[in-house]
Design goal:
With 206 residues, this protein is of the alpha/beta class. The chain has six helices and seven strands. Strands 3-2-1-4-5-6-7 form a seven-stranded mixed sheet, sandwiched between helices. Helix 1 runs parallel beside helix 6. The longest helix has 24 residues. It is globular, with a radius of gyration of 17 Å. The protein binds glycinamide ribonucleotide (GAR). Glycinamide ribonucleotide (GAR) binds next to helix 1, strand 5 and helix 6.
């Protein structure tokens, strides 16, 4: 099966949904930049190995990224899922993952890259909001979008109601995309598919 690693900074509800979807994948590692992240508990309860590292323990941002993504590479995932990972990753580190990492972002990209997407949607007076799954590139929230979920925005909505309603949609969106990748229906830049052929691990050379 497709070997999947995930990185998450928060409670891990998207990770939980991904696990609960019972896709034909093997979760090889869940990593976090926050040792107290709920996502690590979700992983432990599912029997998935975990790793947590804190940026403050490293000389600089790049050293931290190299260490965390190095640990991920050692687990030899075919696909890396950023499931609520809240740090900007250095471009030099991201480069090695192009075509084999996806991110879920709470906006209808290309709208509202970065933080505070619900607030920005409300401030703009948008009548719809959504979440996007995209392949990760060096450009923050800028890689090719592969799937989106939409919700209507009403006059009484707040950041909190939007976040809550959107999360429900995210929980089917992310498993749908991972399922499509696992079955070989979706790829970008030669992500090694589980199609009966051996999966490639170009990171082994790094
Ligand atoms: C999700 O809403 C996800 O889209 C968002 O963080 C939340 C994580 O929730 N991701 C980003 O904002 C990425 N920049 P979860 O920990 O319950 O899955």
């Amino acid at each position: 099966p497709l070997r999947v690693a995930a990185l998450a900074s928060g409670r891990g509800s998207n990770l939980a949904a991904l696990i609960a979807a019972r896709l034909p994948v093997e979760f090889v590692l869940v990593g976090s930049d926050k040792p107290s992240a709920g996502a690590l508990d979700v992983a432990r309860q599912a029997g998935i190995p975990t790793v947590a590292m804190q940026a403050k323990d490293f000389a600089d941002r790049v050293a931290f990224d190299r260490a965390l993504f190095g640990a991920v590479a050692e687990a030899r995932p075919d696909l890396l899922v950023l499931a609520g990972y809240m740090r900007i990753i250095d471009a030099s580190v991201v480069a090695a993952w192009e075509g084999r990492a996806i991110n879920i972002h709470p906006s209808l990209l290309p709208k509202y890259r970065g933080m505070h997407t619900h607030r920005r949607c409300l401030e703009a007076g948008d009548t719809e909001h959504g979440a996007s799954v995209h392949f990760v590139t060096a450009e923050l929230d800028g890689g090719p979008v592969v799937a989106q979920a939409r919700i209507a925005v009403g006059p009484t909505d707040t950041e909190e109601t939007l976040a809550t309603r959107l999360l429900v949609e995210e929980h089917t969106l992310l498993p749908a995309v991972v399922g499509a990748i696992a079955s070989g229906r979706l790829q970008w830049r030669g992500l090694a598919m589980f199609d009966g052929k051996p999966l490639e691990h170009p990171l082994d050379a790094a």
